[in-house]
Write a structure and sequence with these properties.
Length: 396
């Protein structure tokens, strides 16, 4: 079965063009590639004694191929796989979307991101830093389900609401639990989509009964080639509720964004024999704030309630162009401690500086320097760690 799943993308590329004469319109085949290199700087001995030694290295962060298009003018589809793991092919997006439904707008059915967290919903092709902020430890990510969505107020706002079933990287989920419900409303309270000056706000909620009533939150220090520095461990719960608030905007070449997420976990009261620990009601939280500035004068692109593809004013080596250069800074904090509930997952604060060179709207070189401070369950500082990461990426 695994081998069959791995060759499906090849079959898709070969067979879908043949479907163009059978109702498939606007067929596009594309992909993305991201190669990372990580060098660790100073890592305190106390951090290594708790987390383990962090090693330098390189990895293919993402290697994806996708096909998307339209069927009979009112149905859109997208299928997307990631080959970066090497051993397994992971399913990303795989959905059919029916558009123009009276009174509803659009209905998406399949496997895709639940409507929660601006940073998580923004494509990895368009995020400013190499990794999303640590607060996305709370984001539900991609699962299988049905979502209704549409735009309103002259397309300046979007609403999204859906029901999902928790699934693995192959889109498989078993059992009666693992069902979630989520909704998000977001948009521009100032400016228009293509304006240089605009301000975005949004709120989202997500409620889930985890599979086997088990939940775990953990996170890396915004460096993918890294161990997880904070971790609650797995524990029992009757339900998880997430609430998020987001804001962002652009003022010419300056752009900014920030989010805050509160996650509440209900104590387990089931009668089944417990193989994991059970705690009282608990709550965790995290936030980030970031700012960026295009030295070459571009404005960060925005579309449909999330960040989009930014195009350099002049592409590299075209008519003497240098591409676009962007300076970045971000502060994030993730707190996985709840003393009253007896959960000591740790606390992590990150400061990240970045430089992006957009050679073209489809290719860029990125450099991040991440400094992390780790605290224990009593919020006493354990130590610090820093890393320099660079990425070359392109998409087509």
């Amino acid at each position: 079965m695994a081998k069959l799943f791995a060759v499906l993308p090849v079959l898709l590329i070969v067979c879908l063009p043949l479907a163009a004469g059978a109702g498939v319109e606007d067929l596009t085949i594309g992909g993305r590639f991201m190669q990372d290199y990580t060098v660790w700087g100073s890592v305190d001995d106390d951090v290594e004694s708790v987390i383990g030694e962090q090693v330098n290295g390189t990895e293919i962060r993402r290697a994806r191929i996708h096909a998307k298009g339209r069927i009979y003018s009112n149905m859109k589809f997208k299928v997307n796989w990631d080959f970066a793991d090497g051993d397994e092919t992971e399913l990303k997006d795989a959905y059919l979307e029916i558009t123009g439904l009276p009174g509803v707008g659009n209905a998406r059915i399949g496997h895709f991101n639940e409507p929660f967290c601006l940073d998580e919903l923004t494509s990895s092709k368009y995020i400013s830093f190499l990794e999303r902020a640590s607060v996305n430890a709370f984001a539900p990510g991609r699962n299988s389900g049905v979502m209704l969505h549409d735009s309103f107020v002259d397309d300046r706002f979007v609403w999204q609401a859906g029901a999902f079933r928790t699934t693995d990287g192959a889109g498989v989920g078993e059992g009666d639990d693992g069902v979630s419900f989520g909704a998000r409303v977001a948009g521009l309270v100032m400016g228009e989509v293509k304006d240089d000056n605009k301000f975005h706000v949004g709120v989202s909620v997500n409620s889930v009964t985890p599979e086997c009533n088990e939940v775990r939150f953990r996170q890396r220090p915004e460096v993918h080639l890294s161990d997880r520095f904070v971790d609650t461990g797995t524990f029992m719960t009757d339900g998880v509720m997430r609430v998020g608030a987001e804001a962002g905007g652009t003022f010419g070449p300056l752009h900014f964004a920030g989010e805050y997420i509160m996650t509440s976990v209900t104590a387990y009261e089931g009668e089944e024999e417990m193989e994991r620990e059970s705690f009282e009601d608990a709550s965790f939280n995290g936030f980030y704030g970031q700012v960026g500035y295009f030295l070459t004068g571009e404005t960060r692109a925005y579309k449909g309630g999330q960040w989009a593809r930014t195009k350099p004013a002049a592409n590299f080596l075209e008519d003497g162009g240098l591409g676009a250069f962007e300076l970045l800074a971000r502060y994030s904090s993730l707190d996985l401690n709840d003393e009253d509930a007896g959960i000591a997952g740790g606390k992590m604060d990150n400061i990240t500086f970045g430089l992006n060179w957009y050679m073209h709207s489809n290719a860029r070189w990125m450099i991040n320097y991440v400094m992390s401070t780790i605290s224990d369950g009593d919020e006493d500082e354990v130590g610090t760690a820093s890393a320099l990461i660079t990425r070359f990426q392109f998409d087509f």
